[in-house]
Design goal:
The structure is a homodimer of 97-residue chains. Chain A is an alpha+beta fold. Chain A is built from six helices and three strands; from the N terminus they run ααβααββαα. The first copy, chain A, binds a DNA duplex (30 and 30 nucleotides) through helix 3 and helix 4.
Chain lengths: 97, 97
Amino acid sequence: MIIKQLSDNEIRVHIFKALSDEVRLNIVAMLFEKKTEMSCGEIGEILDINKSTASYHFKTLREAGLTTTRKVGQNKFVSLNTAVFDKILPGFLDTLA
Amino acid sequence: MIIKQLSDNEIRVHIFKALSDEVRLNIVAMLFEKKTEMSCGEIGEILDINKSTASYHFKTLREAGLTTTRKVGQNKFVSLNTAVFDKILPGFLDTLA
DNA sequence: TCGATAGTTTTAAAACTATCAAACAACGAT
DNA sequence: ATCGTTGTTTGATAGTTTTAAAACTATCGA
């Protein structure tokens, strides 16, 4: 299996793409406000989005390295990777408060 | 003329979209490094991009509020709107250094 | 094991984005 | 005036992104 080594700017592009959507920004803002992990279903219900659309957005955030997912029984819990935010966009999360 | 009032997240989406492209990130990085305005032609030549493509990217950055353009004779000089960066993405520019 | 619940994947349509050539507009110099 | 330079706009094309229905996988409880 070949793993492509991404340049700094490729990483940034990936992250900015992930954040350049209102639904995903709302997910990030919610997770930051609640200061705790939330289940996919809970988030999807609050934001009132189709579950496959929600799943697509969770995948986009996860693949950009912005969130982590933890499976518990039939649920999946999403939480923010604050270390990545702090490294690439220091101070950004605090502007959401 | 009607001016739409953008929400905070709409502004962020606009800015993240503008930054989610390698060419535009390179333009921003160059302007930040040089710490001075640069002409469109100079930037386009350094990055080796077609002039209409370059113009498209300048427009994208300008419309997101990230740059300002000043016309001098037949040239146009582009500079960073550091205040916008500092407000929406505090600390980001420094990560480019 | 069956049924319900929670998420993912596949697929397709619609909307959007990046690129380039060609035509255009604005300016300065001759 | 016309020419060369600098940058914008337009229109075409190729590729990407977002959305949602339908089919699928995994887990739990009865």
